[in-house]
Design brief:
Length: about 220
């Protein structure tokens, strides 16, 4: 009996430890002044509005709206998952290139990650994932894999063992090989724009989640 109890206790401990290991850093878009407990620099005039299922979201106008957050949620990670829940608008050709999540220490440069989208003239968008280090750069993009604007969607970027993978709505769309060199803890994160204030996003962003482990989007939702 004691042996059985001990084994059950160990099993529970392993399960709990595994859950803790994949617990994400959640950035909900409840406030412009603070995201994920970090202070923000507000660019332009983004606004908090009801988003998907009535949950708060932040609307960006595609002209000069953005947020600069003094945090790097994947600092120290050797593998990671980044997920953005968003809804783009139809603004072709004004906002053909939209870089809506950017992690980099601009003072150091060279190492950066971006989640982006491109618009075409048929009111559809396609994903663009980008990573750069001082040794290499990799762009994951395919203009034939398009999605309708004006609808909520999820883009997810994962990295593990030199494999960078890009998902849209839980489906793997793109992958490639690159060696990730960790971005320093001093890096910041911009939302709604590239960090150097260009390629503005037009639409709504409801949440961003970060894990310091590579997960398959179709599986982690069930786990959490």
């Amino acid at each position: 009996m004691r042996k059985t109890t001990f084994l059950l206790s160990c099993l529970v401990s392993v399960v709990v430890s595994s859950c803790v290991a994949v617990k994400p850093t959640r950035w909900e878009m409840h406030s412009l002044a603070s995201i994920g407990g970090h202070s923000t620099q507000v660019l332009g005039n983004p606004s908090t509005i009801p988003g998907k299922d009535g949950a708060p979201a932040i609307a960006f106008d595609g002209v000069d709206d953005g947020l600069l957050i003094d945090a790097n949620p994947i600092a120290g990670a050797e593998e990671f998952t980044i997920e953005v829940v968003f809804k783009p608008k139809a603004v072709w050709p004004a906002n053909v290139e939209q870089r809506f999540l950017h992690i980099e220490d601009m003072a150091v440069g060279q190492r950066r990650i971006l989640l982006e989208l491109r618009l075409n003239n048929q009111n559809r968008w396609y994903a663009d994932f980008f990573m750069r280090t001082e040794k290499a750069a990799l762009t994951l993009i395919d203009s034939s894999k398009t999605h309708p604007v004006g609808e909520w969607a999820t883009m997810t970027l994962t990295y593990k063992d030199k494999q960078l993978k890009g998902y849209v709505n839980g489906k793997l769309e793109l992958s490639g090989e690159i060696e990730y060199l960790p971005i320093p803890p001093t890096a910041k994160t911009s939302i709604g724009t590239r960090m150097d204030k260009r390629s503005w996003f037009n639409g709504q962003i409801q949440s961003v989640r970060f894990w310091k482990v590579a997960l398959q989007p179709k599986k982690y939702s069930d786990i959490l």
